[in-house]
Amino acid sequence: MAGDEERTRLSRSRSLHDSVATRFGGAASGDAARELALALAPGKSLGRFMILGALGEGGMALVLRAYDPELDRKVAIKVMRADLYGERASIGQQRMHREALALARLSHPNIVQVFEVGSLPGGVFIAMELVQGVNLRTWLKGQTRSWREVVEVFRQAGAGLQAAHRAGIIHRDFKPDNVLVGDDGRVRVLDFGLARPEGEAELQERGPLTFSQEQLVTQAGSLIGTPAYMAPEQHLGLPADARSDIFGFCVSLHEALHGRRPFVGETADEVRRRVLAGEITVGPREAGVPAWLRALVLRGLQLDPERRPASMDAVVAELSRDHAATLRRWGVGAAFVGLLLGWVGTSVVSSDRPRCDQVAARFVGVWDPGRRAEIGAALIGSRIGNAAATWARVAPALDAYAAAWVSESTARCLAEDSGERVHNELGQLCLERRHAEFTALVEVLARSDAEIVEHAVEAVGQLVAPARCGDRASLAVTAAVLPPEDPVAVAALRQRLVVVEAEERAGHDAAVLEDSSALVDEARALGYAPLLAEALLRRGSLLARGAAYAAADAALIEAYAAAEAAGDDLLRAEALLLRVEVVGFNMAQPDLVAAWVPAAIALVQRLDPDSALEARMWTTIGLTEHIARKYDLAEAHQRQALALLERVSAADDPQRITVLLHLGRTLWARGGDGEATIAVLEEARRLAETVLGSEHPSLVMIYLNLANAYASQPDMLIMYYRKSLALGEKVLGPNHPSVAAALANLGNSLMHYGEFVEALANYRRAVDIYLATLGDAHPTTAMNICNLASALVAVKRVPEAHEWFARALAIYGRAHQGSQPEHALAIGGMGEAFAAEGRWEEARERAHRAFEVATAVNGGPTPWHVVNWQLNETEALQRLGRDREARALGEPLLGLPPGRLKPEDLGRLRLVLARARAATGAPTEALALAETARTELAAATDLSWQSPLAEIDEWLREARARGLERPEVMR
Fold first, then answer.
1. Which pTM value belongs to this model?
2. Is-contact 242 165, C-beta < 8 A?
3. Cα-only R_g, the chain
4. What are the tens digits of pLDDT across the range 892-908?
5. Which of 226, 260, 624, 866 matches a 20 to 30 Å C-alpha distance to 40?
6. 135-201+224-300+312-316 maps to which CATH number?
7. Beta strand pairing call for 196-197 and 61-68
8. Alpha helices of 567-713 — where are they, by DSSP H?
9. Which residues have a catalytic role annotated?
10. Sign of the dihedral through C-alpha 295, 299, 302, 307
11. What pLDDT digit, counting tens, does each position of 529-541 carry?
């Protein structure tokens, strides 16, 4: 076979006739190829066209120059290459025929015009307009082109693709080689050989793929398209659509602006890997390339087609827009703009530094009036829950953030003091990070779904304020960090990390969990400690959100070590606080992180005193103290967090809602003033409904805790439980853990009133949800299993109850290292099941053990359910005939403060002690105690099904009927 060097040498010495024969004869065989070569020699006719010579050769066809004598014009004729005859002929002919049909359907100034389709021996040809000019690749190499010149050429090419898409035609191989720039300045898209009507089935053309770095051509029998310009879905063999062309268009645009393609590789496999991994190689940035144009290119290069512009209409509109005019309009007062550019208009325009005037342009295409309207339409148009209320909150917050960024960045640009240079450089790096985070979050908001609507307000609130980039103390640590050896790789990886963080803030935890693992591996390979610390912190946060607490703890410990190595105190503080929350609160093991708490306090108060970060710190510490039953400390620190937020944040800061909720839970758990608890939780409810909307998921837990606080007001209690359940099912779905919490608490209320069947159904559903979401190693799962087992005892299904109590105790064992107070729920529950069977010694032993376990950790007054274990043991002793022991244990309980025992439990205690007194020779005291119990229970309201009133009445009747001279009958 003739090699490329031989072809080049021969073409220089032979006639045009010989050149054509060589091209078609190099790999051809048989008479058909020789006949075709002769038929296409200069001077020959093809239909009515006279062949003038060769124009060029591609992967599939030869292009000839010809003359049309009827219309007196020169044309270009495309003919399938003869060396593709034989077994590949049918594919080549199908492509040629498809191109002819595609181009015949299109008539547009930016698409090469087709004049005629004809046949020749063994194939087809296409006659089309002959364009005087060069292809786009040659045009770019001819001389240095400004970004404005590039945009104009791509605007025209985009208009051609736009017309093709509107006709239902997808190009599938857009690249600079397939764009002609005419001498008249008009741009035409050509080579629709891979085009097909949208929705038509793909040809099966997979096979080995090789290409050089200089010219990547589609090989016959290969994957369709040119690898360096193909969209991810094309590499995967999936159907292509208009967004696939947008991807190729943006690859070409990136190459035109920066001098290199975004996905670089020496082989097809390497390019494919980089495309599918989204590994964009940061090219040398032309100084004048505006932010809106870079943003457009990056949007078009997204892996997920859904995240690219929806159509070429949007791309062409962006390239056609007069961005300078947009900026001028902003300067005199568009919505966001009066805030964003009003300051710039008075301060920057008069500056003798023209570059500072470009600062605001960084938000063109990122957050300008058009983009703002687009995001708003997406969010409100989703019709999800409280989307409209969310947008009303999010839009002005993003406006204000963009304005603050412009203000801070412009002030830095204008700084003249040379002594500020180091901090200016560090501050600018900080601002670039803030801009990247903002851009990533806006991109996420554009894809509105239920999770985004739920988390949007909080996600915007979590953006780091641009003003922090002017804080010398915050930047000081960065100055000590050595620069990376590969800054390009670090920048690319950090950009991907920013995207993962934005997705996490929007509630897409599971979607980016795998990505976070890859980021950690790549950051570790780079060996740059600050980036590794960031990646590990993100990984730990995502694992914690998915309830993978042990894995999260390991990641956070490593994140802390990496931050220590980097000398980044802020990252150290973040890792510290998150680990305290994960281990101390989520894993319910506050002792394991007790030593970390003083370090966290010292670090945060040194880095950022009197700040939202310090408020978050006190909130987190309060959570661990709540778990440790140190309710006084928890309340003090939660109130400290609230006071800080009142000083440093807005009155409607969503963080206040979180702190109020935690404070309300602490007050309720401590058994404190019901009115104070209700007041705190009602404030949380009002703030959440105002700030987040009446259907925000955070209200599910607020309603739930409010119901608990209204324990003495049955109507309010049931109302809030049912509101919590209904809202949870609506906005979170039927299998969310918060729905399970509502089911369990509603079940508790139903049990209180003796509605056992419905209560049991609620408990079963709650347990199923917790097992599916939190698993069988989480304390919450075990607690709800105890509820289920107690309901089974109430309906006399005691053997089944024993199985569930044993399972709960096993789960507690997996969740905790050593015995914890929570274990008493399962141990004491077993005792109640034994009591229901009349197995009083086993009941007594379990009740005694439950009380010991529940009181092993000292912290606050003993809750009523813990005292209940003593009551159960007292009854078991009395039933066993150990009356004096029963009196010794139970009599002191009569002196507990009012409210420590529920009325029905106090009534039961008095009945048990009345029996014990009667049996130990104190009949008068026994009768008096029983009568007191009856009087108080008769006057009480809202008694549960466990009220012993009927049993007390029966005992009193029996005592009076038989007399008290034989107290043994009273047993």
1. 0.52
2. yes
3. 38
4. 999 888 777 888 889 99
5. 226
6. 1.10.510.10
7. unpaired
8. 569-579, 596-607, 612-627, 631-648, 654-670, 674-691, 698-709
9. 173
10. positive
11. 888 999 999 999 9
